[in-house]
Amino acid sequence: MNAATKNASWRHGIVLSGVREWPVLVLLIASMAMLNHFAPHSHNAQRITHLALLAFASAYIFIRRSRLIWPSNPAGGIALLLFFLLGVISSSRAYAPSYGFLEVGYTLLLVLTGLAAGREMADSYSKKLNWVLTICAIGCAAYLLQAFVGLSIFVQMGITPGVGDIIQNFENFRFFNHAQTVTVPLLVLLCCRAKTQKVRYAVFILAGFWWMLLFTVGGRGTMLGLGAGVLVALVLMKGTAKLFVGMMALTAITGFVLDYLIFYQLPPVFGLEPFGHSSALVDRTVHDPTSSRTYLWRRCLQMIAAHPMLGVGPMHFAHGGMDLRLGSHPHSWVMQYAAEWGIPAVICLIATIGAAGRRLFCQAKALATTDVSDGLVATGLIATGTAIVVDALVSGSFIMPISQLLIVTYLACASGWVWSRTRPSTWTVVPQFALRGAIGIAVIMVVLGVSVDAGDLPGSHTDYPVKGPGFSIFPRFWFDGRF
Hints:
Strand content: under 5%
Radius of gyration: 22 Å
Shape: globular
Number of strands: 2
Number of domains: 1
Mean pLDDT: 85
Largest sheet: 2 strands, antiparallel
Structural class: mainly alpha
Order of helices and strands: HHHEHHHHHHHHHHHHHHHEH
């Protein structure tokens, strides 16, 4: 192979195993997201590995001259551009500009990486999607194995485990629920797409156990998001959605039964108290439906009233709301971006999400009724996207490390499917100088923001000194979200 041929292979993809171009970015992102499930108490370590991943992705996109494309209607792209421009302006006026630029740059790199990964998936989409779904399934199966090994140890010792003993490797088990908002429907989609009965049964059982963990810890935001996703998919896709929605229901019922049997009926056999937490779900919802989020949202409204146009600055709820001692983010993406980036910015973000969702739905409606495979994929993508957006209305899934990578994985899968179904002539290709300029600016902003804390980034929360009774650390970009 001469130099010219090698260069052409690098620029335009390599034909291998029937796939013209390997989806390097999305496979790397999905793998990293699942591996993060096994990093013990590692919020900061996850951030650092994510920064390394984004550095690689930036270099990869830059060197390969990856194309960033937007379908024919540019409205969503313009709204997204305005969103980031407003973030930059807001950061420049904030109390700590370096932290504002850090969040803007990091978010921009995530979006660019997801869209570039989606372009990689557009060719031979079905095969590449199966690879992503398989990575998700392997990660979920490995985590379940770890959970059951841990449970067996506690049972043998005669100790009733707590939630933290069941959901390991997360500073807060809600971060695990954020990940489930994406992984549950992806597992169900894999189950529906299985080509053999054996594979379908295996993935069905895996999905049932994955639902079991959701019921065990009572993740209301995730349940709300998944329920909304199923409902929206059923309304929009009608008969096409029956297989996916039915499988979601069956796996959910299986998970509920497994939770009841394993965490309520089995422990007394070994002389232990039941250690499931799903029974407290109704009580929590009745007596504290928002889990104290109303205090955070009130503070957001105060910030919005004081700074309606440009907000207090990206990431700055971590500063302005820390006296509440309830969290360094408001557990709502709408409230967060309105308070931190400003009302115009959140309107632009809503317009971007709306334009992307409309494009996905229009492409799904254009499918022939006999196109069962693509109809199934479209249903799964609509349900997952809805679940992500709805869950993030009451959680911090948009800013926590593992859920961020899984959302980027979803962005790659959704955009890749849309582009695989459209003619290249309808694409709006972002000029190379604009793409490279955006990457360069984003990298500079991230470097400036990270350099502020470069000398003080312990890898685990155990390295932080205790600063008094009742002292708590609330994660944001780093594990200690305050500044």
